[in-house]
Amino acid sequence: MGSIRADGIQAGRLTPADYEANFSDIHAPLSKHEAIVESERCYFCHDAPCQTACPTSIDIPLFIREIATGNDLGAAETILSANIMGGMCARVCPTETLCEEACVREHAEGKPVKIGLLQRHATDELMASGKQPFKRAPSTGKKVAVIGGGPAGLACAHKLAELGHAVTIFESKDKLGGLNEYGIAAYKSTHDFAQREVDFILSIGGIEVKTKHALGCNIDIGVLRKEFDAVFVGVGLSGVNKLGLEGEESLSGVIDAVHYIAELRQAKDLSKLPVGRNVVVIGGGMTAIDAAVQSKKLGAENVTVVYRRGQPDMKASAYEQEVAQTNGVTLKTFAQPAALLGEGGKVSAVRFDETDHVSGRLTTTGGHYTLPADMVLTAIGQLFVPDGLGGADALALEAGRIKVDAERRTSVKGIWAGGDCVADGQDLTVAAVEDGKQAALSIHHALNS
């Protein structure tokens, strides 16, 4: 990857050609011919297990059959009718553990139909055509506030607009898209796809957007309940877990991985984004893997992900772990951070205590080791921050997140919620989309009953 040796956190470690190559699309899209050939591998199963495995219940056999017959736009409409963010989900969802793992051909021969790439092919064709297959129903005269412009909020807003309701999205950041815009690896969503998908969703009409509006700051949920006929909360997880080690806040070079990825995603020139030569990433989920791989692609020489349990326990899928390793990232397991070491106000190393499972519990073994680090990226989980949920009428929480029922109704009448901020949330784009869709259907029923 052409890394230029330099100690400390530095920008411009690579050539312009290296940056372009490293952050190009991780998966080349299928050509028209490739899509047809791949679609013909599908058995078009009755009661297809792939469809059952899809959180949004896309009719996968149908859309693949439509591709096989040359009807790419029809295939896209089939996909988007179930999952309005089918284009992004085709890029970022762990299809290897969802629809493709359930594929009959995976079980028969270890080579599933490439459902994700076929889904991307169809949705890309539709977006390139500039067509909007969805139309708004006649106005109901009802108004719905959607707090949060991530996948859950966007899916909810689109379905409500389609059903004829007037929607206002309140988003705390400058752009809509949530983690699709700010939180995933840049090589998974190239050419500003996240915003192009947002524009496609909004093009149905009937959706007003107010950015830089944050719950608990310049919008009040109590006021929204009075001004709107219903409220949907899809604020995601805005807090992050801390290591709890001395120097975490004071040492330069210790950085929250979520913030670092967001900065990278918004960078206009990657050559100006600093990265360390020796990068240590602490965590075992997708954020840790995305941060590690991108650090390597930015020119870091040594990137190590350290996780306190074993590889099978990592939240990042086996495929994503393989992506990290094939990009030169080292995965070290059964170790937890014990101390941050520094020199001159900058982090210089991390000391780890070795761990093991003893009688079903994780415990330290007494062993330890130290890894040199001029950059430490922490990725040990995100937290729901319940600011602004109201006083006496506060929404009930469960396991630190908003409690909802099967229709995504909260404990407060007139308020629904979905996405990562709700209890039992799966922290997946596709699951958030389903939450938003189901909440919208429930809201529509409530407003018409």
State the CATH superfamily name of the largest domain.
Answer: FAD/NAD(P)-binding domain
| Cα-atom radius of gyration | 23 Å
State the CATH architecture of the largest domain.
Answer: 3-Layer(bba) Sandwich
Determine the number of helices (DSSP H or I, runs of at least 4 residues).
Answer: 17
Total discrete domains: 3
Reading off the top of the CATH hierarchy, the class of the largest domain is best stated as Alpha Beta
The residue fraction in helices comes out at 25-40%
Residues in β-strands, percent: 15-25%
Biggest sheet architecture: 5 strands, parallel
Q: Care to describe what's here?
A:
- With 449 residues, this protein is of the alpha/beta class.
- It folds into three domains: 32-129, Orthogonal Bundle (Fumarate Reductase Iron-sulfur Protein, Chain B, domain 2), CATH 1.10.1060; 143-238 and 384-447, FAD/NAD(P)-binding domain (3-Layer(bba) Sandwich); 240-381, FAD/NAD(P)-binding domain.
- 35% of the residues lie in helices and 19% in strands.
- The protein is built from 17 helices and 17 strands.
- The chain has helices at 16-22, 32-39, 49-53, 60-68, 72-82, 86-92, 99-102, 104-109, 115-129, 151-162, 179-182, 193-202, 221-227, 257-266, 286-297, 318-326, 429-447; strands at 143-147, 166-171, 207-211, 230-233, 239-240, 254-256, 278-282, 302-307, 330-333, 335-343, 346-358, 361-372, 375-378, 382-383, 397-398, 401-402, 415-417.
- The strands form five sheets. The chain has a five-stranded parallel β-sheet with strand order 3-2-1-4-17, with helices on both faces.
- α10 links the parallel β1 and β2.
- The longest helix has 19 residues, at 429-447.
- The radius of gyration is 23 Å and the shape is globular.
- The protein starts with 15 loop residues before the first helix and ends with a helix.
- The relative contact order is 0.14.
